Amino acid sequence: MAKPFLMIYVRPGKCDFCGCCVGVCPEDAIELMEAKLSIIEDRCTNCRKCVWACPWEVLEFHREGIQDLPKDIVAVDDFQFANSLK
Amino acid sequence: MKKQYDVIVVGAGPAGSTAARYAAANGASVLMLEKDRDVGYPVRCGEAVSHEGVIQFIQPDPKWIASTVTKFRLVAPNGSSVIPQLDGVGYVLERRIFDYELAKLAANEGAEVITKAYVYDLLKDSNGEAAGVKALIKDVKVEISCKVVIGADGVESRVGKWAGIDTTCHIRDMESCAQMTISGIDVDDETLDFYFGDEVSPGGYLWVFPKGKHTANVGLGLSVEEAKKKSAIKFLQEFIEKKFPNAAVLTHIAGGVPCAKTCDTLVKNRVMLVGDAGHQVNPVSGGGIISGMIGGMIAGEVAAEAIQKNDLSLLVQYEKRWQKRLGWRHEVFYNIKEAIAGFSDDRLNSICTSALKLPEHKRTLGGIFRTALWNQPSMLLDVAKVFVS
Ligand SMILES: Cc1cc2nc3c(=O)[nH]c(=O)nc-3n(C[C@H](O)[C@H](O)[C@H](O)COP(=O)(O)OP(=O)(O)OC[C@H]3O[C@@H](n4cnc5c(N)ncnc54)[C@H](O)[C@@H]3O)c2cc1C
Ligand code: SF4
Ligand code: SF4
Prior knowledge:
The structure holds 2 protein chains of 2 kinds.
Chain A (H helix, E strand, L loop, with lengths): L7 E3 L9 H5 L5 E4 L2 E4 L9 H5 L5 E3 L16 H7 L2
Antiparallel strand pairs in A: 1-4, 2-3
Chain B lengths: L3 E7 L3 H12 L4 E4 L14 E3 H4 L10 E5 L1 E5 L5 E2 L7 E4 L1 H14 L3 E3 L2 E8 L5 E8 L2 E12 L7 H4 L11 E10 L7 E5 L9 E8 L2 E9 H4 L4 H12 L4 E11 L8 E2 L2 E3 L15 H20 L8 H25 L3 H13 L7 H8 L4 H12 L1
The complex binds flavin-adenine dinucleotide and iron/sulfur cluster (2 copies).
């Protein structure tokens, strides 16, 4: 899959862990636990369906990836966690 | 916990608990795993059900009924409203207690239940068929074997995908939802309110479901196609600020409802899907509690029977039985949803005006649907099927 880098970011403090985003993700790229949500970087194609689906505007699409992230987005650590289950 | 079961159920919502209950009652050894700390909480639901739906499974009990409703009020975009005649009553539940009771019914039949147990993959045999699950139970990785896995993991279902079933919900069909339970407001405890129109919830609807003591679930759902333009939470905040500015907010939740036809495949590689996981939701109303329980009941019975007869090829019977019981209806409802979602505000207003002209005894939901669909003769046949069955 030609994909430059992950462009989907999570605002973890805002998330309600409801699963609406997981239900529309065509790539099975979202790991959702009781109180933890993370994107599985290798699978995500940046299609943005999860961003549109989120009722609470928790997920964000950033064109430049990590370069243009607002400072308060801190979910990057969770990638490691998601990969550890695979 | 043992190392091996006949059936492992993933998810302890109404569909999972009912599947576990009927599988255990018919002789299977059953383990049900729930990722959250509590069964039944958090509640992501408007909590409305019909009396006829509930009594198929459990006798109504005041401890999980917040209010008994006898009326529907449909509010058009211009504020005019119509109250159709209903026969029968409905309930607004306390799902945190209701779901608990359903899990107890499963436990009483012998099913084991474990919470804080997150299933993150399937164990597979050399043929690629499910042979168990991999789970993180209270942060410890464990592998548990079984003959059949029942995926009851809700809108966020992944169990089916791991078995090769495409359960991704199209964004047109996924309803992106937000709800607040608010208190200190003036609502009629016997009436379910539904608001329609572009201002409150384009293509979907907003609900006010009374919970007694000046409290109600106020929420809305709209297709992700619409939510792209404006999110569910923005619509909800605007409505509540306008309509109930001084309300106390007791909970607020997000959620998703797959308002689609049932998944084409419900059984594959020894995995069965029930409830939201298999898209067993009424696509018009978004109601999925009772239909998910019906799916769970059939799947539990079929799984136990196949295990007893030592013939897992019988599992596919579940698809046929579901289709016959409710699947076909949901297909009809889906077509109706497609028609209604396209209605403009003007059209909705004029439907309300026409409905109010109907004599009172004809002001039934069916009568209003017929009025609504008068200009769409192709739909009349579908509507007839729904109300005749
Ligand atoms: C806002 C909103 C309002 C609604 N209002 C109504 C209504 O008024 N009436 C009605 O009938 N329906 C309503 N619905 C729909 C209804 O809530 C669902 O259809 C119903 O809960 C489906 O039951 P279920 O058992 O399939 O799934 P759920 O109730 O979602 O249960 C699934 C369970 O699986 C668990 N789980 C998920 N993944 C895993 C995993 N990997 N490992 C372990 N456990 C897992 C989850 O934690 C959850 O407990 C509403 C839905 C929403 C979002
Ligand atoms: S849809 Fe939004 S609130 Fe729900 S789990 Fe996904 S990111 Fe969190
Ligand atoms: S962007 Fe698309 S592939 Fe990536 S997590 Fe979201 S829905 Fe899945």
